[in-house]
Each structure stands twice: as C-alpha cells, then as structure tokens.
Amino acid sequence: MTNDTKPAKANKQTEVYVPQLKTNWHLDRVAFYGSADVSTDSDLYRQAFQCAQELSRAGKIIVNGGGPGIMQASTQGAESVGGQTIGVTLHAPKDELPEFEGQAAANHLTLEIKTKNYIERMFGLMTQADVFVCFQGGTGTLSEWATAWLLAHLYYGHHKPLVLYGSFWFEVMEVINRNFMIGEKERNVYRIVENPRQLLAVIEGLEKEYQVMLETQNL
User: Fold this and answer.
1) Stretch 67-77: mean pLDDT, rounded?
2) Which of 46, 101, 107, 40 is nearest to 71 (CA)?
3) What's the CA dihedral at 44, 46, 48, 53 to 10 degrees?
4) Please, which residues bridge with residue 129 across strands?
5) Quick one: pLDDT at residue 132?
6) What is the mean pLDDT of residues 157-168?
7) Confidence band, pLDDT 50/70/90 cuts, at residue 219
8) What is the Cα Rg of the chain in Å?
9) By the 8 A CB rule, do 73 and 48 touch?
10) Domain of 160?
C-alpha cells in the first residue's frame, strides 16, 4: 500500500460528493454495507469481522458508515490486525431521523468524514471506496446496494465493482435476473462469495481483471 492511500487520524467536514469515473485498477478501499442491527454475538457479525481482518492483512483500507452492526464489525476486524478504517458519518438528531442508527460508540475509526445529510453520507461512502461488499441487511443496505449497482452499470469500464456476501444472494439475484431487465454488463460487475477467504480472492481477482481491462482500453 502506498503512503498516499493511508488515512491519518482526523475529523473532516465534507463537500458534496459527485460520482466519478474510476481511472486506476487498484481496489485499495473496501466499503462494508450491511445491517446495523446485527448483534455482536451473531455469526454474521463474526463473519464481517473476519472479512475485515483478511482484507486488512492484505493491505486494504476498510470503509463504513460509522454505525453499529456490520459497520462496527468491519472496523473492529481491521483494528484487531492494525488495519486502517475510514468512516463516512452523519450525526443527525433523533427527531430528524428517528430510525437512523447513528454512530456507534464502539466504532473507533482511523479517519472520520462527517456529512450533512443521509444522501451525502451514502454517496460519500461510494466516493471513498473502490469496491463494495454487501452483507445481509435491511432497506438501507438495499438502497446502497442498488445505487452502487446502478453506478457500476452507468460507469461500466470505469466502474467500481460489487461483491455480494452470503449464499442467499444466489437466490436474490436469480429472482432479479428472471423478473427484471438486467443486461450482461450489469451481471459482470458483481460477484457472490460465501466466506472471508473467497472474498479476498475475488477482490484480488477483480483487481487483476480491472488492470487488464484498463490496459486494453489504452492500447
């Protein structure tokens, strides 16, 4: 990992995020999407923790929304092996967003990026990351996954790929591909994995594919 990819401990106020073309093949920053309601003693929490460990050992930076559940698990997994984390957070009053999970006290980030509203937070996560890992979650996770998938389609060739974590995704994507108008390129931008080692292997494989694709475009 090069020095310019390592976040320093700091607080930062963001500006508006705009999706952009990805112009390099590195997948250094990995965003974790998933339920904020996963308990710390659940198998899903343990798997997210282990995924972040594997990725951090490989030099990846973990990106999340600063909340509990999958987000906290990914931070703690990275922290357990000395890894780096970036959190894109939103500190909203309960009366403004009563169902928003907020920031978890146990989610100790290397770098916190503060945003002004939920939409800016969502796109901030997408701007900070090079690749997205989607775990089981609720409507928030569905929104993030669908938006990331759409952007990967729109920016195809200079897109940020997705990795869908968990065997349930095979059934989900089968239903979607059968009932929605999903094109070949939209199917090419994601992979499905079932364990932490597969996740690391797939991300490293996507990185090699991306390098070849960009080199071919530049011929």
Assistant:
1) 98
2) 107
3) -170
4) none
5) 98
6) 96
7) low
8) 16
9) yes
10) 27-217
The sign one gets for the Cα dihedral 172, 174, 180, 181 is: positive
pLDDT per residue as tens digits for the range 94-141: 888 998 998 899 999 999 999 999 999 999 999 999 999 999 999 999
Answer left, alpha or beta for residue 165, where phi above 0 means left and psi between -120 and 50 means alpha.
Answer: beta
Cβ–Cβ under 8 Å, residues 82 and 49:
no
Positive or negative torsion for Cα 14, 135, 186, 200: positive
Q: For position 141, which CATH number holds?
A: 3.40.50.450
Question: 27 φ, ψ to 5°?
Answer: -115, 65
123, part of any domain: yes
Q: Is residue 22 part of a domain?
A: no
Q: Which two tokens stand for residue 117?
A: 């509203």
**Domain contains 14:** no
Asked whether the predicted pLDDT for residue 215 surpasses 90, the reply is: no
pTM of the model: 0.91
Pair type for strands 111-114 and 10-13: parallel
Please compute the mean of the pLDDT values over residues 140-168 and round it to a whole number.
96
Q: Which amino acid is at 104?
A: A
**Residue 2 in domain:** no
Provide the angle, in degrees to the nearest 10, between the axes of the packed helices 196-217 and 43-57.
Answer: 50
Number of domains in the chain: 1
Answer yes or no: is pLDDT of 212 > 50.
yes
